[in-house]
């Protein structure tokens, strides 16, 4: 059955050529078909094989048929046309869709009316339009029988539908198409799941098959002609290769092609690779280098620019400018001096402003009450000054003051006569709490202040004005206090001085009395000192309010005072003031003490002055020295040390040093002598030198050009013993050297330890003693010895008897050598030879330095590096000749090359 | 105080006039005259001229080049500084290419240098040539004076300073300035070109030595107790108390080190730039007066009374080389500028010349020398008593023979002889001042401004000071063979394996450290005591592991060794019973 089908397909082309005939014979075909089917039915009715067997047989048949394909083909070629009814699908067993069992049930409709059959076919007909690759069998069927009557029926039916619905023909057709998709296979057909026909070979679709449906459409004839033309010259086309193979082949071809293309670059690349330096952008003209040059190229383009240009380049303007433009410019000019002046002025003003600002800031931050009080007073003073100038303001001020005073009187805040105060006083102050007590104290204080004000006003006879501020009063107060203190101090000092006078006769001169006196004196002195200190402190505190500006620094004043050597309250006071000021600005109490000491020193110095009448400078110096010492020491000095100390000290120092120097010299000489004694060989020259050294600063006269000592010494004949020593000196020296060398060798290559056993080991029997040391020990020892010998032989000085060359490693120098061979090198010699030449500018002529030190890539900053360009290069040309011929390589490539070059 | 007498002393003049003068050719070249005219700098020994060539020179001299080809090859070879690497067996193509390019550049450089030497350094050293039976060493200074120009004549003089004792002298590296120090405290700085005294000071104590630092602005004087550094104006800048009473001073100009040997035989190195004391070593050989720096490598050599010469560098406490040169004390020593030759003189009246590459004596001359000095061209001056002898090596075979001699009038005792660089002049410090005589062929005729410029301006000097400071070498670069710098370090001897106890101790320490580590607090359930204990144990195990592994390895190697030993040591008949290795 399959054969038939194939035959039919092969003749497909023919059937199409004579279509008309086919149409006519349609009815005949139909009858034949029915007959055929009836035959089959007949066969089936006979005794049947089991179904399994049958299928097997079928399969065999199919195989045979495929084998005998050629024969059939030839058959086909013979006859012109032979129509054969196609076997129904069920029969051909294309698919397993049709069960044999079902087939039986289907037998009945075979005998049915044409209409049913035709409708079936009709479906198929519709199929073939879009299901081209699908069921070929169906397609053939169409061609065979559907075209005739069925089509007519179809048309009629369509027309009817059209009439009823009034819709176009196509709509119905499309609908039908959609509905009638026949799935003939279990799996969708595809490249991977081809139909049996495709697999077996002969299921080609021809162009004619495809042309058939579009018959009658415009352009059909044209197409057909072309197809016919092609048919005439048709050649068989091979099936395409698998994609992977195809691509591989393609790649190969491309490779061959591109290889040809690429190899032409090879020389270029090789040349670049071998070149020691690659130049980029050698011949690029960078153009203008300055702004001026660029600006000179400017051309006016816009309206505005043109206008300006016309103005600027106007002849008149230019001329005018030429005429007096320069003068104008000159007028414009500011002289450098003026400018400097102006600038300096501005700078000054600015700095002044800044300083003022800083000052304000600082002042604003001050929290001290005293300061503010003083400030307020200043303000008042200023106001009073103003009052003097301006009567109006004075009146106003007076009024204010009056008001204030009245207020004060009314409140009586400053007296403890108020009701509240009286009550508190009645109850007793002790019973009150802190706050109240403080308030009372404040009141009292206030009162005291006010009353004192009145007193001073009373006392001051100089003026009745307000200007006599309480500051001054305080000053006077303090003056008094300081006067008192001064007196006290003087007295104590006197006592201290007086102590020195000791009665020479009487009971008091008795030793124990003297001792007791001394003791007492010391105590008294001690006390006096303490008292003095106290006075000083007191003075300090008293003067605390004193604000007289101390213009001179403390030391200065102190020195001057010394010079004057006058008794000086004021001086001390100024000193104190200074000290006090220090205290005032938050120094610690310890400073007080220091200052006190200083003051004491002053007195001491003064006394010295008075007593000794030494030169003022001297004393000044001494005092300066003394000042750094402690008070007690100072006192001691005063007591004990009559003369100016400094000179004495210097004298001591110098004399000491003299002595020292001398002694040193002596020692030197001794050392020298001992050395000489030790040394077997005495050198004349050395001796002379030694002498010179020992007393270098004196003697050795030179008499008219001839050294008195030198030549004489050298001409002296050596004594017999000396000669002998000279003669035998050599032996000694050589021996010593030998020893030295041996020592150094041992030091650098230590001798192996002698093999020893533990003491007592194996000694209780005599066997082991006889045997001696174990053999392995001896062997080890021998090995070590041999090794040492070898290393000694390898030494550089092995053959040089008179030379010791140290083999010690210098770790610091080691870092100047490479630990390992640098990368591309494989042999040490080659590396060392390659670095033998210095490449610095000091060692090479100018012409060679550049080439020796040229970097691997030379490029200009700001120049674009263009991609490599092809150029003809001869294969055996040297790279250097082309070095300077512009761009050659891509930048990233060249970078790689740089890296490689660096490694070497 | 100081009387400059720029003329030959009266006595020698008289001698000259009385002498009959045979006809002779006197070849002499005054370096200074020539160098005024030429613009190019010259290269002594190692360095090459560095100024750019003038193109016209090449044009005009191109034709001359052919005849001196052999000579050129020689100089090119000299400037190549050794053999090129053999690239034959080199596998690495890239390296081969690179090295080839490098070699080519080297070759070009050497060729250019050779050309410069040929065409731009035309000054040749002068020399004395005797005719017939006359000998060069019989030629007196007076007869030389008759032949030379006025400028050279100015270099023949005696300066008599009777009061302040034997003088020692030192020149700046460019030979322009001289510092003279009288033993009794007279220091003077003299400009040798104008022969004018720049400054003199009296320090009023013994001065044993004087040495210039890197330029003429500073010099150091070894005084009675300490060395001092003064500037040109005689202002004391530093007192180097750490050095003690120094007997000899030397300055290493490439390293900026001031080296001194004091009377206790202590060698001090002080960096004069930072003031840092670089080295302080006891030589252990007593006091010495013989001290010299090898200009080639910066190694300081000391001659000792035991007849040994020791060589020192600032980074090692032991001498690099100790060689027994004389049976008696070494009185002085000197180095050839190329650093390969050393001359020593002993008290046993021998002068020896040593090859320092082999540490062998090349030549032994008889004669006493209190002071020795090599000139730039390799002449050796030896002074003793009032007699100065100059030895020369004109055959090129390092065979020194008498070249010139000079005896100082009135028996002044020579204290120091020193050749003036870039001049044919020998300075002699003696007991009555100093003298200067002409020695033809002693100085380098072509100077290199990179090295030293005798006509240096103050601006150049300033520049050079900065440059030399930038190029200052660290003290560790001083070594016997400085060409070893930059090469591959020789393989070190294997270090001793740590003993078992040491290893155990190390392990113990590691374990202790592990025990002390704080254990992180884990979440509940993982922080149980048992877990913590486990974790601790783990930590300790981890600390131990590397040691144990090492131990296991060792055991294995030991076992293997034993096995092989067993195999080899067993008698042949028993060897088959040795357990075979499981393969």
E-strand count of chain B: 30
| Low-pLDDT ranges of chain B | 1-66
Rg from alpha-carbon coordinates of chain A: 68 Å
The fraction of residues assigned to DSSP E strands of chain B is: 25-35%
Mean pLDDT of chain A: 65
Tell me the structural class of chain A.
Answer: mainly alpha
Q: What would you call the quaternary organization?
A: heterodimer
Instruction: Name the chain pair with the biggest interface and residue counts per chain.
Output: A-B, 78 and 87 residues
The helix content of chain B, as a percent range, equals 10-25%
Instruction: Estimate the strand proportion of chain A.
Output: under 5%
The beta-strand count of chain A equals: 5
Discrete helix count of chain A: 41
The biggest beta sheet of chain A, please? 2 strands, parallel
Query: What is the CA–CA distance across the termini of chain A?
Result: 84 Å
Strand order of the largest sheet of chain A: 1-5
The coarse overall form of chain A would be: extended
Biggest beta-sheet profile of chain B: 4 strands, antiparallel
Provide the gyration radius of chain B in Å: 33 Å
The count of helical stretches of chain B stands at 10
Q: Name the shape of chain B in a single word.
A: elongated
Instruction: State the low-pLDDT regions of chain A, or none.
Output: 1-46, 65-79, 102-106, 115-147, 459-477, 542-715, 879-904
